[in-house]
Amino acid sequence: MEAIRKQASKLREQVARQQQAVMKQFGGGYGADGAFSDEAEMQQHSKLEKLYISTRAAKHFQRDVVRGVEGYIVTGSKQVEIGNKLCEDGKKYGTENTCTSGNTLSKAALSFAKARSIMEKERGNLLKALGTQVAEPLRAMVMGAPLEDARHLAQRYDRVRQEAEAQAIEVSKRQMKLRETSGNSDMISRLEAAESKLHELKSNMGVLGKEAVAAMTAVEAQQQRLTMQRLIALVESERNYHQRVLQILDQLEREMVSERQRIDGAPPPVVESSMPPPPAYEEVNGIFMRSPTVAELVETVEYFLAEAIQSYRAESETELNLSAGDYIVVRKVSNNGWAEGECRGKAGWFPYDYIEKRERVLASKVAQVF
Length: 370
Prior knowledge:
The protein is α+β, with helices and mostly antiparallel strands. Helix content is about 70%, strand content about 10%. It has helices spanning about 1-25, 40-95, 105-140, 145-180, 185-265, 280-285, 290-295, 365-370; strands at about 300-310, 325-335, 340-345, 345-350, 355. The chain has a 5-stranded antiparallel beta sheet. It is rod-shaped. The termini are far apart.
């Protein structure tokens, strides 16, 4: 459509120049003073054409911005929904986790969920700002009355100008006929009527042209100003959003890194043994031997030699320190996983799983027991 309009405009200008040449050749009264030989009118027409093209291009750009922002809002709303679901999952894990080795990950999950929730609120605020501060004002201007009114004025001016062109040709023809024939009152009257109509069209064309140029100029200035303001608002809204999100992420990262460093630098956790404590040494050696609890607890066995397959550190005076490779004379074995014996001249309790029975032992190893 734009190419067709430009071509039509060029054709009209060519026709106007040809008309001027014909009228000058035949000495018509509308040569230098004709409808389209007026330099001011030609400049006005050219300016109106440029304004029409400029305002149309700005309108299309405004519409593209509105469509882009609306698409961004739709996509962003879906991202907010996904982000909020992620917040719920993190919060659920953080509150319901029953990890036995610590709650470090639970704390991290809660911190992440909290930070993500704040970020999604910021995203929602951004989407709202883009809708109210960018899309709505631009959409209102694209669909607004000022632009349509100015375009209607320009179209009216264009129609009147075409009528004036046709009327100028009619006046030129009547002038030529009047020269070729002996003039009569009827022909003179028709020529005067045609000239009067042409004069009226020229007058209307001049008024409409000025009004259209003024209206289109005002619309163009408003388009440029408003579009620039909305673009600045868009950039500021996005910048503020990203700055806020960056602050949230920086704070979250500091918290997580600090917690990780604390865990990495802490001594390894002490794993509490689920094994019950060994029976009291005095009980096993006869003070409370008649107690049914002790009778059930301790099983008397024949002495045997055993080798420690791993080290054991005594945690009370009734227990015996063992080193891997030590040989022990085992004298008693309890039903709760403990054994009692002697090694290197000392006696005490130790976990039965830390030893293995040996049928044959070198004499040198036996000597170490005592």
